[in-house]
Amino acid sequence: MVEGDNYSPQNYQGISQMPPSTTKKSNKIIWIISGVLIVSAIAVLIILLNPFSNAISSDELSFGAYVDLKEAGKVNFEIDEEDHELIIDNIRTNSVEINIESNTITAMLEIGEEKKFELNDEGI
Known about the structure:
Layout: H1 20-49, E1 55-56, H2 58-63, E2 74-79, E3 82-91, E4 95-100, E5 105-110
Parallel strand pairs: 1-2
Antiparallel strand pairs: 2-3, 3-4, 4-5
């Protein structure tokens, strides 16, 4: 053994084993990489599944649906397998201006007013 060498059988069980400080650094890197991968996977799932989207199903649409929207709020819905998006453009004291993107329809609705729109060329 060379003088100043801290080698002892208690510190190392074999030539292939790394010193404890290197093992701790490797474990820390593995945990960081694992954490980043888990967070990334969760973000991708949220984007793909989007549980917070304002979408109205066909059943909800036919029976009526309530969606709480603010200005610039959006809601997606489907009629006859065609996707539509309603956007709240402007909220005033007694009215709201809406825009239906799929057919480029803009309308003003007063409080309590109901309107029907032609969206599928089959009549209202």
